[in-house]
From TrEMBL:
<dbReference type="InterPro" id="IPR036264">
    <property type="entry name" value="Bact_exopeptidase_dim_dom"/>
</dbReference>
<dbReference type="InterPro" id="IPR050072">
    <property type="entry name" value="Peptidase_M20A"/>
</dbReference>
<dbReference type="InterPro" id="IPR002933">
    <property type="entry name" value="Peptidase_M20"/>
</dbReference>
<keyword id="KW-0482">Metalloprotease</keyword>
<protein>
    <submittedName>
        <fullName>Succinyl-diaminopimelate desuccinylase</fullName>
    </submittedName>
</protein>
<dbReference type="Pfam" id="PF01546">
    <property type="entry name" value="Peptidase_M20"/>
</dbReference>
<keyword id="KW-0645">Protease</keyword>
<keyword id="KW-0224">Dipeptidase</keyword>
<keyword id="KW-0862">Zinc</keyword>
<dbReference type="InterPro" id="IPR011650">
    <property type="entry name" value="Peptidase_M20_dimer"/>
</dbReference>
<keyword id="KW-0479">Metal-binding</keyword>
<keyword id="KW-0378">Hydrolase</keyword>
<dbReference type="GO" id="GO:0008777">
    <property type="term" value="F:acetylornithine deacetylase activity"/>
</dbReference>
<comment type="similarity">
    <text>Belongs to the peptidase M20A family.</text>
</comment>
<dbReference type="InterPro" id="IPR001261">
    <property type="entry name" value="ArgE/DapE_CS"/>
</dbReference>
<dbReference type="GO" id="GO:0006526">
    <property type="term" value="P:L-arginine biosynthetic process"/>
</dbReference>
<dbReference type="GO" id="GO:0008270">
    <property type="term" value="F:zinc ion binding"/>
</dbReference>
Length: 469
């Protein structure tokens, strides 16, 4: 069966490339609801394109109020679901190739969504095509379920399951191989501070902003300053330790804009990036601002958050025996003379709770200026490594890779945690760079094809009747 799957997958290689390119060329970043399009027109276009591709391949499809759609094959009462999404995070800056051109270079397709999660959705769809072309008999229905706001709350899939049956088993091609038996909890917190007070002479913070999404390490942040001349500001900056290539200073009438360029990364892996907001505040905290509340806020941020990514100084550092450890990422900030707000994306250990994280933080604020509010909490996912479902996924993976390593835990969050029994499974192979939410995101074409083959084998092992061999 392995050889037949590989041969069929290879015959579909060019089609997989074209389908991935068609989807990546749609800039499906969530926008304001527009009429019948709950997450904006571009997200709908990506969903519609995925449905169109599926129908052209001969599959039955169903659109659920433009919130989600499914592609179906097979027969039976039970459902095996493959959970993917067609929305993407904002592209950020600094790309070598245009983020929505889906260009092919060095056997890689470049573009936002190639690895998260349009390429994997294509791999899942073509896995179904492989099973179909091989005339495999199924005793379950197999559904590729496509959501539309995975990157910003997962509401679309929750909506879908209010209208459609919950699958008995599901895996989500939206992370790494091998099978993932545990996902950390995901907590978004909004920190805010009221900076309004009587105007004073001297250096003022007119504006500060940075970041594109809570679950991205921001690669750019800027602040606008007033009440100082260029010579004075340059002398102050000379006394501060920072990478000069990362900072730029621009005069705008009587004000100055300080811009910091960091390195983007997925919010679950803040150690892989360089947080532009945090590094900018590190510099600002050493400047002599006139307003005492601005000074208090900058002191709070630099001392309690700083450039750490484990939450140690703010009191929420944690790790369990799975093992999974807490990560802390300031993803978005916006403020002016009167108020500043920023959103922190925390991935907390599988055996912890959001309530503990928030309590630890509030107990370590040491300032009445700072308010903390819970925006969103998605509880962790955990399954035993020896679960029969996980073992079948592992067998399919090992057959095509020879890798005998066991199931793993991650900080990323996938649709798998929204179903009764689900895990994440691929598409990133061990040792490959994690480029989701980063510039120059890509998927290796060989890996796209290999993933489709692995998913096809998993479908056959889980939903196929036993006489297929």
């Amino acid at each position: 069966m392995k050889d037949k799957i590989i041969e069929t997958a290879e015959n579909l290689r060019d089609n997989m490339i074209l389908s991935t390119q068609e989807l990546v060329r749609i800039p499906s970043v969530e926008a304001e609801a527009a009429g019948e399009y709950p997450y904006g027109v571009e997200v709908y276009k990506a969903l519609a394109k995925a449905v169109e591709i599926s129908e052209n391949m001969g599959f039955k499809t169903k659109n659920i109020d433009n919130q989600a759609a499914h592609v179906e094959m097979g027969e039976g009462e039970e459902i095996l679901a493959l959970l993917c999404h067609v929305d993407v995070v904002p592209e950020g800056s600094g790309w070598t190739y245009p983020p929505y051109a889906a260009e092919v270079h060095d056997n890689k397709i470049f573009g936002r969504g190639t690895i998260d999660d349009k390429g994997p959705a294509v791999a899942a769809l073509y896995a179904m095509k492989i099973v179909k072309d091989l005339n495999i008999k199924l005793n379950k229905r197999v559904r590729l379920i496509l959501g539309t706001n995975e990157e910003s709350g997962m509401a679309s899939l929750n909506y879908y399951f209010k209208k459609e049956k919950m699958p008995e088993l599901a895996f989500s091609p939206d992370a790494t191989f091998p099978a993932i038996h545990a996902e950390k909890g995901i907590l978004d917190l909004k920190f805010s501070a009221n900076l309004k007070e009587e105007n004073k002479e001297g250096l003022k913070l007119e504006k500060i902003e940075g970041g594109n999404a809570a679950n991205m390490v921001p690669d750019y942040a800027e602040a606008v300053l007033s009440g100082i001349n260029k010579e004075e500001l340059e002398k102050l900056l000379e006394k501060i330790d920072y990478e000069e290539a990362d900072l730029s200073l621009e005069a705008v009438e009587d004000e100055f804009k300080i811009s910091y360029n960091g390195i983007s990364a997925h919010g679950s892996l803040p150690e892989d990036g360089k947080n532009a907001i945090s590094y900018l505040i590190k510099i600002l905290s050493e400047l002599p601002f006139a307003k005492t509340k601005v000074r208090e806020f900058l002191n709070f941020y630099s001392s309690k958050i700083g450039i750490e990514y484990d939450g140690a100084s703010i009191g929420c550092k944690d790790q369990d025996d799975v093992p999974t450890a807490l990560t802390f990422n300031t993803g978005v900030m916006k403020g002016d003379q009167n108020k500043v707000e920023f959103i922190v994306n925390i991935r907390y250990p599988v055996k912890s709770k959001a309530e503990k994280v928030v309590s630890d933080i509030r107990n370590n604020l040491d300032s009445d200026l700072i308010n903390v509010e819970i925006l969103n909490d998605v509880e962790p996912l955990y399954a035993a490594k020896n679960d029969p479902f996980i073992q079948k996924l592992m067998t399919a993976y090992q057959e095509f890779t020879g890798d005998k390593s066991g199931p793993i835990a991650i900080g990323g969050g996938t649709y798998a945690r929204l179903v009764d029994k689900g895990v994440a499974f691929g598409p990133l192979f061990p040792g490959q760079p994690e480029l989701a939410h980063q510039k120059d995101e890509f998927i290796e074409i060989d890996d796209l094809v290999r993933s489709a083959a692995i998913y096809a084998k998993a479908i056959i092992d889980i939903a196929g009747v036993k006489d297929n061999e």
